[in-house]
Amino acid sequence: MKVDDIMSTRLVTVEMDDRLETALRIFSNAPLHHLLVIEEGRLVGVVSDRDLFRALSPNIDTAAETAKDRATLHKHIHQIMSRAPARLYSGASLDEAITILAEHPISCIPIVSAEQHPLGIVSL
């Protein structure tokens, strides 16, 4: 079996200079756990919902929120993204994906074309 047979092609991408506020809006409105970070259409990183929530103040949208808490929303994606993520090319075997997921502390593998354009994602 190939990763192409099981990958999700419902991808949401962001760019390195997008703000964390954009990622929060996306995660709040869609049942996603990973955003692929692209630059000129090529995969350069991944941001998970866990990455985002670690970077944001827990006081956002609470009575205890301060200007400093709110400022965490203005950080850029490149400040929290995982760079050079593990990836597989279209046509890779499912066994390759399983091996990568078992050997690394990650929960998704982007599937890319030879030109590094995101095509899909395999996640736990």
Quick rundown:
With 124 residues, the protein is an alpha/beta fold.
Would you mind describing this structure in some detail?
- This protein is α/β, with parallel strands linked by helices and 124 residues long.
- It is 29% helix and 25% strand.
- Strand 1, helix 2 and strand 2 form a beta-alpha-beta unit.
- It is elongated, with a radius of gyration of 16 Å.
- The mean pLDDT is 92.
- β-strand number: 7
Binned strand content: 25-35%
Largest sheet: 4 strands, mixed
Helix content: 25-40%
The total count of helices amounts to: 5
Compute the average pLDDT.
92
Task: Provide key terms for this protein.
four-stranded mixed β-sheet, 124 residues, alpha/beta, 29% helix
Blueprint (SSEs and pairs):
Elements: H1 3-6, E1 13-15, H2 20-29, E2 34-39, E3 42-48, H3 49-55, H4 67-71, E4 82-83, E5 88-89, H5 94-103, E6 108-112, E7 118-123
